[in-house]
Design goal:
Length: about 200
């Protein structure tokens, strides 16, 4: 198997990685700057102490990757499968966004995700407990069975998001945007009858 990331090479700049298959491997202490990953397969790959800056991932499979001590700065994920990832392992600061991605069973527990975009995604059974989601955009995202207890949802945008269950007594809501009919779910925390 050809090694896409050489043992000696620790810095990659403005390169395109196309259809790289590198499952269940370890990539450590490598920096990627303005790189594009397209149709790559990194299932269960461990990225340890790596840095991705101004990079894009398109149509990749990053399911069950580990990002231990790694940093993402202005990274965009588009049409990418990223199931079961523990994002809390990232090193601060981090800035990233998701468009049309599958993020089911991911953990964002207690993370600072203010102003992050998660648009047209599937984030089913994701953990957002006690996270700061101020100004985060969840537009058109499926949040089935995702957990938000203790989260700060001030100014967050849930326009056309579906299947969320948010208890207003358990979250901070201020100028949070919801759209009908899903907004009716907010009343499920109260003992009321709607006719």
């Amino acid at each position: 198997m050809v090694e896409p990331f050489g043992v000696e090479e620790k810095f990659y700049s403005e390169l395109e990685f196309l259809k790289i298959e590198y499952p269940e491997r370890v990539v450590q202490d490598v920096e990627f700057y303005k790189c594009r990953f397209s149709e790559c397969y990194f299932f269960k790959t461990r990225f340890i102490d790596c840095e991705f800056e101004n990079c894009t991932f398109e149509k990749c499979d990053l399911s069950l990757i580990a990002l231990t001590g790694s940093r993402l700065l202005d990274v965009e994920f588009t049409d990418t499968k990223i199931l079961g990832v523990d994002w809390t392992l990232l090193k601060k600061p981090y800035r990233f966004s998701f468009n049309r991605c599958k993020l089911d069973n991911s953990s964002f527990f207690r993370m600072e995700l203010n102003s992050l975009n998660m648009i047209e995604c599937s984030a089913r059974e994701a953990d957002f407990i006690e996270a700061n989601l101020t100004k985060m955009v969840f537009a058109y995202t499926d949040l089935y069975h995702s957990r938000f207890n203790g989260a700060n949802l001030s100014f967050a945008n849930f326009s056309n998001a579906i299947n969320y269950s948010i208890d207003p007594n358990q979250c901070k809501l201020k100028k949070t945007i919801f759209t009908m009919p899903e907004a009716m779910q907010l009343l499920s925390a109260f003992d009321v009858v709607i006719k």
